[in-house]
User: Fold this.
Amino acid sequence: MKTPLPLNAIHIDDLYWNRYTRLIPEKVIPYQWEVLNDRVPGVPPSNCLRNFRIAAGEEKGERGGMVFQDSDAAKWLEAVAYSLACSPDPVLEKNADGLIALIGRAQEKDGYLNTYFSLKCPEGKWKNLTEGHELYCAGHFIEAAAAYFETTGKTRLLEIMCRFADLICATFGTEPNKLHGYPGHPEIELALVRLYRVTGVRRYLDLAKYFIDTRGSSPNYFIEEMKRPDFKRIFAELSRYDPAYSQSHVPVREQDTAEGHAVRAMYLFCAMADLAQEYNDGELLERCRILWDNVVQKRMYITGSIGSSGILERFTVDYDLPNDSNYSETCASIGLAMFGLRMNMLTADASYFDTVERVLYNTVRSGISLEGDRYFYVNPLEVWPQTCIENSSRAHIKPVRQKWFDCACCPTNLARTLTGLGKYIYLIEDNELYINLFIRNNAEFKINGETVNISIDTDYPKTGHAKIKIKSGALPLTLNIRIPGFIGSGNNFIVCVNGKPAAGERINNYLKITGTWNNDEVTLNFPVEPRLVYSNPKVHLNCGKAAIARGPEIYCLEEIDNGKNLAALSLDTNSPLQEFYSDKIPGGIMVIKACGKRLIAPEQPDSFGENFIPHTENFTLTAVPYGVWGNRNNESEPGEMLVWIRI
Amino acid sequence: MKTPLPLNAIHIDDLYWNRYTRLIPEKVIPYQWEVLNDRVPGVPPSNCLRNFRIAAGEEKGERGGMVFQDSDAAKWLEAVAYSLACSPDPVLEKNADGLIALIGRAQEKDGYLNTYFSLKCPEGKWKNLTEGHELYCAGHFIEAAAAYFETTGKTRLLEIMCRFADLICATFGTEPNKLHGYPGHPEIELALVRLYRVTGVRRYLDLAKYFIDTRGSSPNYFIEEMKRPDFKRIFAELSRYDPAYSQSHVPVREQDTAEGHAVRAMYLFCAMADLAQEYNDGELLERCRILWDNVVQKRMYITGSIGSSGILERFTVDYDLPNDSNYSETCASIGLAMFGLRMNMLTADASYFDTVERVLYNTVRSGISLEGDRYFYVNPLEVWPQTCIENSSRAHIKPVRQKWFDCACCPTNLARTLTGLGKYIYLIEDNELYINLFIRNNAEFKINGETVNISIDTDYPKTGHAKIKIKSGALPLTLNIRIPGFIGSGNNFIVCVNGKPAAGERINNYLKITGTWNNDEVTLNFPVEPRLVYSNPKVHLNCGKAAIARGPEIYCLEEIDNGKNLAALSLDTNSPLQEFYSDKIPGGIMVIKACGKRLIAPEQPDSFGENFIPHTENFTLTAVPYGVWGNRNNESEPGEMLVWIRI
Assistant:
């Protein structure tokens, strides 16, 4: 089984990613700690840690926040775990240990852990799987526990969560005396697989399989649950419940399309992939392939985001990709990257990483400000700030990043993803090393007792040049170097070993080079150039439009560079795209200029007219990477943004 | 003061409108009667009349339907009143009289009339003006009462409603012992003006003025009301109440833009115009002009519909006119036509009728099927049926007309509008007769004791030819013939009197011809030809698009004529538009053909691609009038529709 390298084996020092990998430990994790402790002025109280203190009997008051508020602490702890692997920090570790101890004190005697139900609704435990998020929160804490154990070696959180997992194992299953339910929001399934991998305790894996195999059976558990007299509705908007919302409309092995709430779908599919691997379940793998293809081919935005409907944060239908009213939640993209990593692990096909890279370089970056203290929950592809108004169809679209959210899943999810970035660079299995992302780093690890040293030196995505130094002693090792999909199918992926063209084999979008390595140097050269990407006309809103891209990055137009009303601009596809380096955005970016035109508004104020003759003037469009859009604006001066440009 | 002719003075017999004017009495009103009586299979019970029977103590059971369900009966009665003026029907009149008697029996002793509060919440009367719709329902019943009296001479409903109006006058006002509130949904204001005009009772007019002048005063009545301990929330979605929703954010005389719920805004503006007329209030008139211009110039769709946001059925901001997620409620367009009629009456400017005509020929027709038994509540300008799914951002868009609605304001509103169509044709004041619409009819009425006979013979909008025969005896009479805005500013409005060019004067978009008329014949000739209308580029979603129009009708593309994926089509603006008559839609239409292209989808399924090269093939576009779209589809075979076409 392919596995990522341990995070503390990798040291990332990358021009493009340093900003984030350094910001997270230095600024984001401490900022989020302050938020979770209700200490950031201007941010409404999270109540997250206070809820644990109340549950532990150490503070009086009313439990606050969303039903799943606990999970913010879990994702924060997971981010801390990864951060400590790369950037040791005794103060941070002490805070994390203190929080873990508090969580232990908030845990009930039988292992139950959830401040909402413990404090607000003890009689309602396990009685609202539809909306209650008990298993969801448990899943995030289990992930945090596994991560904290992996990177610090400390077992306290793992012990706490094994106790809870044992209670869950005793509560759910096929046996007549158990509940035959499964979570309204998948997450625990992938977490239980992870807990099994850390502990070796088989019942955790079996429970994950039970949850996956039971999901969507008939009659629908949630529909039946909601009929019970002791069911207490939490979310009014779910009163007309469609089981597809939680991917429980049919058993997972019968699902052909990604339906419902996008984050739920991604976490579910991740667990399906994990179980396909653990049980060598070809049927489940095939189902994962079908669902992956459906998402990536027909329901994903060019920026790697998913979820076309603002209402219920959900998938809709194939090719329905509205640009200015979509949800495209940051967490859903993170889930897609997690799913892609698993599909790559299962299939050894590098093309899955085209999507992982698309997510990381575009929507994950879009999700967080360059200063690390503002976040997008929703990642639209067009923003008209004046239309993003409360109590309207575009109320969910925020034209500027926010300090925090009432439902704050995304900021901590970004933190755990960016601190865990190293997991996406390499995979290893026996004598095969897979290089999936071109991020400057050096790593040291052992295979069969032999130390392997590898470093990647690159300024990607500024260029497509990379120098890989590798030393594996006596060990024969196959390098599998991902050939990125965006370079097309030509012979433009040039690899040399010690200056001589490499005799590699191309398999599944990897170049495979086998050898024994002794401080050898592998150089990569591939084109990272501006290009146009055209929409399939089946995407009705993008007919007659193109997007600018460069390497893994999708570009956008911003008002600050192009003036107001970006929709009035069109692109001349016959003129070459020009690129140049600019430090107008901190960290530096490649800016792309394109020849085009601007429609001129008539003198009349009317929105349409009998006598309007549309005319245009020449205009040079300026495009910047989507991942850094909106970093030159603030609350009082939001700006327009546009990805798909008329041609 | 200009007034419409009494409906029973006008006999409409028009190729274009007969379908509707005959359907309404023959089919629609009886169908709606059955629905209101819960007798139509497949339509969930309305409960409307049953509620009155329960309130009258004549039936047992629970009051059902929306809080404003009573108003469906009111609008039905108003439609019946107009219908009886044109098409006497003893059975219908008997049913209406029976309903009126029932309403009388449901009225409380003090005059109060509202089945929701009488039956469900008697302690809550007048305590939830924000949401309760008591005054809204009262307004519709007052309108019905005035109409029924005007056309039948019967006074029973008028007596009932005067009793209720007197109670309202005793309940609301500036005096310390009265409530200082006003309705959450305007409607009673314009109804009270109408009641004053029918009865001459001044206090009704004064109360209308009170409601208008108090609206939006500080502190906001609704915000204060919602704080009271006895406030009972009816609509969960209004929990974060923004006073702009009900146009109560500032006093009406300080409002510059049309805000909030579009139907509420229209009914409010109508009352403002009425009061401007009654009180000769120039300030209020100026405010009406400002609000009209804001709506018509910047917030109205080319089809005459309004309300850009599906959530809260509201206006958003200038030039925000999404085509496929808008609300564009049929009732809001009807309100806009009512407002336009009033603005024309106040100003004698025919250009207001360009919008009235736009509403009637496009969105009002779109709102009802050619068979009269299916309705659109929401009138989008683009429909992608597969994306119109429950529990999503486009759930409010229905790709086919519906039999009825839980909130059924639109069907009865259509009925009263179409039966009252004659009110829009002529206005009269002293010796001035205004001809505002080109609808085939003959009319007979008296001015200063002198009988005037007028007939308009036309096949408009098939052509722009009309023959007006007029006889006014010894009376000198000025004909004011509206010059439609769509013909532009050239000398293409040709008018002859008895075959000789007329020496008329053009004032405010009217051609004025003064004379004494003795079976004279005035002929009109103006161009009704296919044309392109371009969007102002400020409407970002329509940049680079045009719409096809012909006379007062806006055209659209339908899937049934053009195949799937209408967005892939583009229009060649250099080729002439071709028109021909077709009876493919009952009643016959002018079809317009245009040269264009179709984008060809690639073989790959991906929604975007590195290697897609967009190519096109020639295609002849077929456009039909928007007002009749969707009449060749049914629930099981919905079709795409598109108004704005790429150029």
Notes: The first strand of chain B starts at residue 3 and ends at 4. Chain B touches chain A through 72 residues (CB under 8 Å).
